[in-house]
């Protein structure tokens, strides 16, 4: 796994964005991500849509590699850990957690996490129904229009469309970063991208397997 990084300062805290769609917060020894959507592929198959079963296991393998890479002792998922009900793919979390028995695992509940309480005992999950606040940074699932606080969120699966010659476009997931808000890309690769026009106050950090690319006020 190639990890490429972009260091930023957010509310006086040093954060590390990376091309693997996560943030590492060194002072908290915490890995932060959003929109894992475990079990989505199985949910689709249940409804007759042929989706490979490897999507969830591949995402969890990447997550395990990132925890090892940063030697993180804390993990925070900013919403949508699971996609729908508890299915076999979701139960892979138990196997994942066994690899990291001392990992402090937090979830800010997202709109898809309706049955997440059933996982609390099995994987030692600590969930927050509204938000989590650390060092005056608010972690919420959906972006907020409240400009008075510093927030980190997910939910919208931000993406960017980059023009390539002669008449092609490359769509990539990205971080949106403003002075007071960071919106994370979806961690799961089995999600769509929202490549709406980025608001003026944000900067974009596009991510690819081999790079993290700052795009100032990209349109």
Task: Spell out the blueprint of helices and strands.
Elements: E1 5-10, E2 13-18, E3 23-25, E4 30-33, H1 40-46, H2 54-70, E5 74-77, H3 92-99, E6 104-108, H4 120-123, E7 125-128, E8 132-134, E9 137-139, E10 150-153, E11 159-164, E12 168-177, E13 181-183, E14 203-208, E15 211-215
Parallel strand pairs: 4-5, 5-6, 6-7, 9-10, 10-13
Antiparallel strand pairs: 1-2, 2-3, 3-4, 8-9, 11-12, 12-13, 12-14, 14-15
Helix pairs in contact: 2-3
Features:
alpha/beta, 8-stranded mixed β-sheet, 33% strand
User: How many helices?
Assistant: 4
Find the count of extended strands (DSSP E, 2+ residues).
15
Radius of gyration: 17 Å
Q: Which bin fits the share of residues in helices?
A: 10-25%
Termini separation comes to 30 Å
Using the alpha-carbon principal axes, give the shape.
globular
Q: What percent strand?
A: 25-35%
Q: Let me know the average pLDDT.
A: 86
């Amino acid at each position: 796994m190639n990890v490429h990084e972009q260091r930023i300062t957010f509310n006086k805290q040093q954060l590390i964005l990376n091309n693997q769609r996560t943030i590492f917060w060194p002072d908290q020894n915490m890995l932060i991500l959003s929109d894992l959507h475990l079990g989505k592929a199985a949910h689709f198959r249940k409804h007759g849509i042929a989706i490979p079963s490897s999507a969830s296991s591949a995402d969890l393998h990447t997550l395990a590699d990132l925890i090892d890479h940063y030697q993180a002792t804390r993990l925070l998922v900013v919403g949508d850990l699971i996609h729908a009900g508890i299915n076999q793919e979701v139960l892979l979390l138990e196997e994942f957690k066994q690899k990291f028995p001392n990992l402090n695992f937090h979830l800010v509940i997202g709109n898809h996490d309706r049955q997440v309480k059933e996982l609390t005992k099995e994987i030692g999950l600590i969930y927050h129904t509204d938000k989590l606040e650390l060092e005056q940074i608010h972690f919420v699932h959906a972006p907020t229009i409240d400009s008075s606080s510093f927030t980190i969120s997910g939910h919208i699966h931000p993406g960017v469309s980059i023009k390539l010659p002669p008449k092609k476009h490359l769509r990539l997931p990205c971080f949106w970063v403003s002075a007071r808000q960071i919106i994370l890309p979806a961690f799961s690769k089995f999600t769509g991208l929202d490549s709406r026009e980025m608001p003026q106050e944000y900067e974009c950090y596009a991510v690819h397997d081999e790079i993290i690319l700052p795009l100032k006020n990209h349109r």
